[in-house]
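Chain A, query sequence.
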Amino acid sequence: MAAVTSDILYIEPIDLEYAGIKKDSLKGEVAVVTGAASNIGLGFARAIAWAGAKVVVVDIKDEAGNEAVRIINTENDNADASFFVKCDITKEDEVKALSKAALAKYGKVDILVNNAMNMRLNGPILGSSVSDLDQSLAICARAVMLLVQEFVPTMVERGHGVVTYSSSQFHFSPPLVGGTMYCAGKAAASSLMMSLANEIKGSGVNVFCITPAGVIWKDPNRPSPPRPKGAPPPDPNRSFGMPGFNGTIPPEAGGAAMVYCILNAEKLHGSGIIINDAFDAMNFLYPNPDTVRKTLSRRLNDNELTMVLCNMGAGFIGFGD
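Chain A, predicted structure.
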């Protein structure tokens, strides 16, 4: 694979073999990735293309979208590895145009990665406008439903496909950095995804969420999104790199986790996974394994999952002590 640099997007070399992913493990597949022109979305798109799938790069930013395609096609030495579709995924007519363009180019879609989000919709309830909430829900819930309705029926007809959502927190909880407006949209989309999983269970189309907690796009030329009130200051000792990282996770490594999850989507159907759990399952070769925080999450059963968003906490303080 050719080494690629960019004057527009901050990227690092990508090497999924280091993460135990086989080259061409997704050969023959076609993926649509929203929000694919930056950050974790670009990491997902590059990794999926590295694994052999064709990728439809979806974003609202022309320059970044075309640059993402140049990067992907160059590093895979294939002018047909990806193409860009500018699309406001909150608009039904534009989503239908996206579907038409994807099918005209590649003939099918096997993988739908719902990732797009406006990271600046990150304010608190008492300090945000209702329009901020409207935008968050439009990008997450409305857009996810439009995309699912456009692409999933043909997957079900063929008995083959993967649908995933780049999820996060469902409420603001310091020291995590997702603010209330951001979390509200993510919660709505995650609920839609888990409901979809039950609606199409057994169809051959597998649905899951992945939480890319800790993935940071380190671009010294661009300001970071605003941090919500109560969030801790950034750690100046963060280090990045692919292969290998310590502390925060670069988008390239997040892409490796996504490919692994897509390859094992049947096992994840109807559930979700935090990125560190995915790395544990992959036996990812951390450069400093002693510093990795092993997570203790487990798969929830369906009744637990359907009621988890109804709970604000563990109950009365002091009960059960």
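The chain is about 40% helix and 10% strand. The chain has one domain: 16-308.
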